[in-house]
Structures are given as structure tokens and as C-alpha cells.
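Researcher: We plan to redesign the surface later, but first we want a full-length starting point. C-alpha cells attached.
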């Protein structure tokens, strides 16, 4: 015999969430992302000989998954406010953290060149994506800045040691900035239509 609580959970996860649930989900996810971001900032470098409490790369991956979930929830909010039909992000995707490959994090969930989408829907998706990409870009920029080891001229001072591969994060940052520029151009083209 099945537990009635499990049936309720299944029903809740498959049904479309209401606006209040989506807003709460975004708030909770943003709070988690903010917390992880602060830990990342503090963990980018440690003094020589210290063991870092967290691995920045692992925290970064958690952050990327959270911002993907935030983007999905925000798109659901926009679609529930504006659009009469369904969306590509399901409640289970947001809650369970099921995500695309992190390299394609900000690539389109839908085809923006699709003729069936109206300009308002496309613009809404582009603006949500731009907001999340800019937050991600800001994090990468800060990781890079905070990871440079201090160069002290004093021999007796303990040196700071970077905990991340700065070149790798800089490469991610540059690629993301290019995506943001492309996205801004798409937004401009839609504005001029």
C-alpha cells in the first residue's frame, strides 16, 4: 500500500506551480545563490600552508545550477503573467536541479528564430536570460579578481595562494561576455522591428 504523502508529492511536482510558489522558489534560490557566491569570494585564495574549507570549482558548479533554476523559475513567472500557453521549464526541473550541460547554460531552451513565437515572448526570454548572464558574468569577474595571489615585498609575511585556475575562469568570463554582447544585439534587433 502506498503512502498518501508520496502521492501528494508526485501530484505537486507534476502540476503547474502557482505564481506564489514560483515567487517563493525564486527567493529561496536567490538566497542560496547569494550564500554560495559569498563563500566563493572568501575561498578564492588562502594563506600559504592553510587548507581551504571549500573547493571553489565545486561551489561554482552549484552556483551555475542555481542560476539555471532561477532563470527557469523567472521564465515561468513571466509566462504565467503574460502568456496563455505553457512553457519549457517544468516545476520538477526547477526543484530537482535538472539542467543542461553547464557549457551551454545560457543557450536557448527554445529557438528564438522560430516563426511561431511572437516578439513579446522572445523579448521576455531574452531579457530573463540577459539578467542571469550578467549575474554570472559578475561572479566570474569577482572570482578572477579575488584569486590573484598577493605579492608582498615582505619576506616574513605569509603569502596568499590562489585556489582556482584563474586562466580557466578568465576563459569562461570572456566567452560569457561574448554571449552577452550577442544577446544584446538580438534584443536591439527586436526593439527595431
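Model: Full-length starting sequence:
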Amino acid at each position: 500500500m502506498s503512502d498518501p504523502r508520496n502521492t501528494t508529492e508526485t501530484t505537486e511536482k507534476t502540476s503547474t506551480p502557482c505564481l506564489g510558489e514560483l515567487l517563493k522558489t525564486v527567493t529561496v534560490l536567490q538566497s542560496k545563490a547569494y550564500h554560495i557566491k559569498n563563500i566563493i569570494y572568501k575561498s578564492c585564495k588562502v594563506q600559504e600552508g592553510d587548507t581551504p574549507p571549500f573547493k571553489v570549482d565545486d561551489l561554482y558548479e552549484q552556483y551555475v545550477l542555481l542560476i539555471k533554476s532561477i532563470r527557469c523559475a523567472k521564465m515561468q513567472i513571466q509566462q504565467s503573467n503574460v502568456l496563455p500557453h505553457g512553457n519549457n521549464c517544468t516545476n520538477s526541473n526547477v526543484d530537482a536541479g535538472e539542467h543542461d550541460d553547464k557549457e551551454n547554460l545560457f543557450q536557448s531552451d527554445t529557438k528564438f528564430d522560430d516563426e511561431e513565437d511572437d516578439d513579446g515572448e522572445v523579448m521576455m526570454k531574452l531579457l530573463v536570460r540577459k539578467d542571469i548572464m550578467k549575474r554570472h558574468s559578475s561572479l566570474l569577474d569577482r572570482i578572477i579578481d579575488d584569486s590573484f595571489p598577493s605579492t608582498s615585498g615582505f619576506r616574513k609575511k605569509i603569502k596568499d595562494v590562489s585556489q582556482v585556475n584563474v586562466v580557466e575562469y578568465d576563459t569562461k568570463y570572456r566567452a560569457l561576455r561574448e554571449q552577452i554582447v550577442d544577446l544584446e544585439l538580438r534584443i536591439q534587433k527586436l526593439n527595431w522591428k
